[in-house]
Amino acid sequence: MTVTTELQNEVPAKLSVQKVGKSFRTKDGAVLALDGISLDVAEGEFVCLLGPSGCGKSTLLNIIAGLEEADAGQVVADGARITQPGRDRMMMFQESALFPWLNVRKNVLFGLKLKPNLKRKERVAVADFYLKLVGLEKFQRAFVHELSGGMKQRVALARALAPNPKVLLMDEPFAALDALTREQLYGDLQRIWQDRKKTIVFVTHNVREAVCLGDRVILFSPHPGRIRQEFKIDLPRPRDINSVELARHATAIMAALKGHSQEQAEVAE
Amino acid sequence: MKRFIRASVFFAGLVLLWEALYRAHLWSPVLVPSPLSVGQYLWGAVADGTLGAAIVVTLRRLLYGYAFGLAIGLPVGFLTAHFRVLKDTIGLLALGLQTLPSVCWVPLALLWFGQTESAMFFVVVMGTIWSVIIATEDGVRNIPPIYARAAHTMGSHGLHTWTRVILPAALPYIVGGMKQGWAFAWRSLMAAEIYVTILSGFGLGFLLNNGRELNAMDEVIGIMLVLLVIGVLADKIIFAPWERVLRRRWGTSK
User: Fold this and answer.
1) Among residues A30, A34, A70, which one has the least CA distance to residue A49?
2) Does the CB of B227 have a partner CB in chain A at under 8 Å?
3) What are phi and psi of A88, to 5 degrees?
4) Which of A132, A213, B25, B97 sits in a 20 to 30 Å window from A177, CA-based?
5) DSSP letter for each residue of A122-189
6) Given an 8 Å threshold on Cβ–Cβ distance, is A67 in contact with B153?
């Protein structure tokens, strides 16, 4: 009974980023990583944060996750101010961050064990469900080093999904994978997102990836990290990263990205 | 099985070489006894119970001191890794004392505790504790921070993070430190047993020194062989299974 309840879709969360600022101290003084970032993410929306490295997009994701604190402003999830990590927001990293001392199933169980009111049998059933969802039910007993890069990220996805969060925060999760594996995962992620009804904030520096996955693409510019422009992507799903339509959108965004860096270079002169 | 045979042939060859050197009469038989006379000594010592008793005394001292060293060293290592102020104080002290050869503790232990079991215990603990602290601290500091971050997002905090994430993540380093601590404890105990003659029990170090005093080379070599075998067995029985498990999980085996 509880397993059925546990596996029901959560109502995805609304996220509201309000005038968030963050600076880091370095040897050369304070660097403004984020400056006055405001952004609303609707329930069940898939938003991609796009920008060159150093534009603060990962920092923003960490603040939403509750792993870092903003110097100014706040992030609100479903009306509650975010001050620390929470099970309603799960994070996926570029490296899988799986635990090598646990096998695949126990990695997925790690977060579930921290969830109250679940019996052992129920936890195992939930873990099995998500491992099946990412297509790895046959690798439950494998250790992390025995998996390929793509399989590791699938396990990481299952681990993030298992506690049934409302929000999924993804920090360049596919950046280290080869193109073929990535394409498979684009398909899987879109399917799972629609199936499991999550709100997703996805950080990337890959324009096509952003267009392929996002309902909206938020373009960041660096030094200081600001939101530069927003693109609505209304292509039908599931999207194929190689489609002409998608390429057209990507070209437009790429132009905006380049135009901006040109502008900055001129300012520097 | 193949590896066992290979090792057996190698060691049988060594004994044959030894016998050949003995028969060549290059050195006095007092200095180089035959394998047979060493074997006879060992057999006699086993038969009259002295060897068994000595092994029990030595291993008991070793285990007590080592267990105590671990019980203190592991938690202190975690603490020095976690608190900067402890790293700069106790951590530095441990680093310094770790470089001190453990035999150097013997004179101090003798003056403090006299010819007692406490002196033995103290020397073994001092041999163990510092390297365990250093290895644990290194291990904890070398854990990729992303493990703890991932755990935090899943709702792990404080003690849970330490026992379920930090400890297992540092385990390869910790086992390495435990192994080093064991080697140091073993060395320091032998030093102590050779220097300190106490009536509460004659260990292997005493027998070794006794052999020297009696000019009984068969006893000296026989006991050295026993020490060697104990060292190898300890490695194979205590540490090898751990290392196998770690290699399998972390995928570091060849």
Assistant:
1) A34
2) no
3) -75, -15
4) A132
5) HHHHHHHHHHHHTT-GGGTT-BGGGS-HHHHHHHHHHHHHTT--SEEEEESTTTTS-HHHHHHHHHHH
6) yes
Task: Specify the 3-state DSSP secondary structure of B33.
Answer: coil
pLDDT at A26: 82
pLDDT at A1: 54
Q: Is the pLDDT of residue B79 over 50?
A: yes
Does a structural domain hold residue B14?
no
Total domains in chain B come to 1
Q: Is B149 on the interface with A (CB under 8 A)?
A: yes
The per-residue pLDDT for range A135-188, each reduced to its tens digit, is 999 999 999 999 999 999 999 999 999 999 999 999 999 998 999 999 999 999
The answer to whether position B23 is within a domain reads no
Q: Angle, nearest 10°, between helix axes B217-234 and B35-47?
A: 70
CB pairs under 8 A between A and B: 63
**Residue B247: other Cβ atoms inside 10 A:** 14
Lowest mean pLDDT among A76-80, A142-146, B102-106: B102-106
> How far are the Cα atoms of A19, A87, A217 from residue A46, in angstroms, in the given order?
21, 19, 9
Number of compact structural domains in chain A: 1
- Tens-digit pLDDT profile for residues B148-203: 999 999 999 989 999 999 999 999 989 988 998 899 899 989 988 988 777 677 89
- Whether residues B154 and A163 touch (CB distance < 8 A) is answered with yes
Question: Is the reported ipTM for this assembly greater than 0.90?
Answer: no
Q: What pLDDT does A54 receive?
A: 79
- Structural domain including B203 reads 38-250
User: Would B18 be classed as within a structural domain?
Assistant: no
Q: Residue A120: what residue type?
A: R
Enumerate the residues of chain B whose CB falls inside 8 A of the CB of residue A91.
149-150, 153
Interface residue of A69, A88, A99 to substitute, partner B, most B CBs within 10 Å: A99
Nearest to B249 among A95, A114, A143 (CB): A143
**Which residue in B has a C-alpha nearest to residue A115's C-alpha?**
B155
Q: B247 and chain A: CB distance < 8 Å anywhere? A: no
CATH number, domain containing residue A24 = 3.40.50.300
CATH number of the domain where residue B96 is located:
1.10.3720.10
Q: Which domain holds residue A110?
A: 2-268
Residue B81 resides in a domain: yes
- List pLDDT tens digits, range A225-265: 899 999 999 999 889 999 999 999 999 999 988 877 666 66
Alpha-carbon distances of A93 from A90, A117, A123, A176, B146, rounded to whole Å: 10, 28, 23, 11, 8
